Amino acid sequence: MYCHFQTVLDPESKVFKGVMRNTMLQTINATCFPVLAFNEPIMRLSYPLAFQFSDHISEIVTLTISITALLTAILLTFANAAKLKRNETNLRVTLRSIDDAVISTDLAGLVTNLNLASERLTGWKTSEAIGRPLSEIFNIVNADTLEPVENPTERVLATGATVGLANHTILISKNGTKRQIADSAAPIKMENGKLIGVVIVFRDVDKEYRMQAELMVSKEKYRLIYETSGDAIMTIAPPEWKFTSGNARIIKMFGVADENEFLTLKPWDLSPKFQPDGQRSLTKAQEMIDKAMELGEHSFDWTHIKLHGGEFFTTVLLNKVDLDGKVFIQARVTDITEKVKAERTLRQNEEKYRILFENSNDAMLILKNERFIDCNAATVKMLGYENKEEILNTHPSELSPDTQPDGTSSREKERRITRLVLSKGNHNFEWNHKRKNGEIFPVEVSLTAITFAGETIIHTIWRDITERKTAEKKLKGSEERYKNLINNSIVGVLVAEVESRRVKFANQAACDILGYSLEELLGLNVDDLHPKEHLNEILRNFENHSKGKIEVSPSTPFLRKDGSEAIVDVSGNKTIIDGISCNIGMLVDVTDRKKAEQELIKTQKLRSIGSLAGGIAHDFNNVLLGIFGNLALAKISLESDHPATELISDAEKAMERARRLTNQLLTFSKGGSPVKEEVRLEELIAGITSFNLSGSNVKAVIDCPENIHSLEADKGQIEQVISNLVINADQAMSDGGSIFIDLKNTTIPEENPLRIEPGEYVRIKVRDEGCGIPPEILSHIFDPYFTTKTTGSGIGLATVYSIVYKHDGHIDVDSKLGKGSEFTIHLPAGTAIPKKRDKNDQIAADGSLKGARVLVMDDETYIRELASKILRRLQCQVETAVDGRGTLKTYKENMDGETPFDVVIMDLTIPGGMGGKKTVEKLLELNPKAKVIVCSGYSTDETLANFAEHGFKGKLRKPFTIESLANELKQVL
């Protein structure tokens, strides 16, 4: 700065007046120096001598002032520079220390500075961020759309004004963290107003936003609770105490038209003039409100009214609340009308109970903790005491003899009964009590457990039944005689009401005839017990009986519970029971007799013809034996290429057919008594049908599931059954066709129309496509020697019938002319489910047992060796043991290792050692899932028949074959 000073003198007095200044400013190191200006007073104070010698030394003064001004300017310049530096340092420290984040940019939008808060929120260090575009450091998106937000630098630079960024802004930091921020941008200007950059100020508002969202959710929950509450909620404003708001429940509870009508009311407008205690509602309501204002909260019961009539009872809760600095009363009104009514009813019932309790003719007592705490006057009188105080606090056993009629201690029995009542709720029984004078008398006791005031008591009623017991004894003999006569009668007794035709009584014989229990029969109508096609005739007979006509209705059809029909001879009569007109029917079941008559006729035919057939067959077999023997000798005697050899072979085939016919005659003649063994139906049926249809134009279609049960049956006889049915079907289809043989496992229930024993059965259906059987002869097809064929013998189906029934099975036939016939056979299933055999009888060739670990226990060395060889042929791994102790030791050693045993085969009897029964018990304690097969040569031992009951999974009879062993292992594994 250059300063030029010029003195100013008064032209008249020549007195120094001041200094004129010409100043030129120059910027030095970007620092502005202040310009000095002096007025007269200042000059006089600073330079008094100059004014004294103004006429002579004006030039000296001028020079001195210039020098002084220059020195002063220099000093001020240095002082301002130091101060600026300190301000800049303070500014940097302040910016880095404040909580708000600050980012500054230049005019190009490049970052020039970040404070610590912005480093933390953006994830960028200042040294990394300086010089980078703001959009890279300050990466912001819209919180709702996640779309990028416009860079604020351009808007600030364009307008030169401070701008707020978009609401709901999210800052994405360098590492991807997202934060909700509040932000603004402002221009950076020089003193002369020149724009040199932009500053961004922002802060993390994530927590505030979450709190705001939670507050909104909370407000919404409160609003929903408020609006949907079952209670009426309202706000009352002092001092007028008018309603200012209320929820929707108010309209329904108080019967107001709408919210507008409600807001015109005051609390006492919704109340009757007086409350139940006699106070005016207006006065009492003000008292309640004042109390709530004083205490902050107050609850009480109240009687309200609906605007259009009708009182109801409520509980009111008043709360003092402060809303926006103003005090209100919030009221919650709960309708307790039903509760009040229930309490009134309870009090009335309690009073009624007390009246009944005290005036009852039966003794009534209250038992608590096994002590009587109350009783009525009838109890005192019944026991012969003076007052009830003598009875109270006694134990029931103290008012009883030592033992009851069954010999049980009264105290012990009372404890059992008390536990029963507390768990079940009530119990009725008879008991012997003791009067004060020691007299024992019988009572009928009714106990009921009641929970009252949080405690359980037992309400007790005693009724003296001494007279009843005396009368019962007199009647018991007579009743017992009649009861025994009716219940032990083989004749059924059925009693039905005339008007409703409902069954009123039935004895055991009637239940047995119809297959119902007594309880089931008592819920039925007469109409339910007869076939519909016979119902009209039966109801006419029932009507005749109700008119007193004694009639016998022979062979009346009844429907059993299982749907089968029973033929019953009925004799009926009218009677009066308990004042009700009833019909009593005497039932004699003749179903078996009718069936027996039919069977007798058939049996007589079979017996007479069978005797003849048996004799012929016996003699013919002797002849056949001679012919067979001679043919065999002749065949052996001839050379293999002799011409007669072929003729003899043909003769043997013919003789084989004759032998089959003779076997049928023998089976027929002896009634088909079966010699049973395990029969595999799939193999048997396939072989028989192939043999009988050889050369025929009829083919067999066999449907046999793999899991079809085997039979415990006479194999030869079952072959005859299938053979005869296939031959009949073949002969019924002269033009060819198919025979369909269908096998299925089925379960027959307890009640079944076939009238065979319940259990597992195999159902065999043989159906042809032939001409069918005429209805008029269908019932005769099982008769011996009945046939419609010119070449038939008439014993084929009779033999089938005999064999099936000797095997405890059932056979039925259904036929339609022109469509064919279908025979359905049910035979009891065996215990085994056979597996399909390989054609070459190579057991387990499929490797299904390969690698199985088997432990064999037997005291015989050769059996262990034989079993080992067989099992190794089945590709199993084998170890052996001599007795139970060795078996348990070997099994336990391998149980926890990598090679546990899959199955154990145990001999049932080990002389001098632990056998199968004891060993399997110990083994199952080690491993409850162990699989054990019992093996024995004693076929009659019950263990083999009931092996599962002893813990075994399978059984083997000695001597066993490779096939039987392999099949048992497969079944168990």
Features:
about 950 residues, alpha+beta, seven-stranded antiparallel sheet, five-stranded antiparallel sheet
Q: What is the helix tally?
A: 29
CA(first)-CA(last) distance: 116 Å
What does the overall shape look like? extended
Q: Segments where pLDDT lies below 50 for 5+ residues?
A: 1-9, 13-58, 833-845
Element layout with pairings:
Layout: E1 2-9, E2 16-24, H1 40-46, H2 48-52, H3 58-97, E3 101-105, E4 111-114, H4 116-122, H5 126-129, H6 134-137, E5 140-142, H7 152-159, E6 163-164, E7 169-172, E8 178-189, E9 195-204, H8 206-228, E10 232-237, E11 242-246, H9 249-254, H10 259-263, H11 281-295, E12 297-305, E13 311-323, E14 326-335, H12 337-359, E15 363-368, E16 371-375, H13 377-383, H14 410-424, E17 426-434, E18 440-452, E19 455-464, H15 466-487, E20 492-497, E21 503-506, H16 508-514, H17 518-521, H18 535-546, E22 551-559, E23 565-577, E24 580-589, H19 591-637, H20 643-669, E25 677-679, H21 681-692, E26 698-703, E27 711-713, H22 715-732, E28 737-748, E29 759-767, H23 775-778, H24 796-806, E30 810-816, E31 820-828, E32 853-857, H25 861-873, E33 877-881, H26 884-895, E34 903-907, H27 916-926, E35 932-936, H28 942-945, E36 954-957, H29 962-972
Parallel strand pairs: 26-28, 32-33, 32-34, 34-35, 35-36
Antiparallel strand pairs: 1-2, 3-4, 3-9, 5-7, 6-8, 7-8, 8-9, 10-11, 10-14, 12-13, 13-14, 15-16, 15-19, 17-18, 18-19, 20-21, 20-24, 22-23, 23-24, 25-27, 28-29, 29-31, 30-31
Helix pairs in contact: 19-20, 20-24, 21-22, 22-24, 26-27
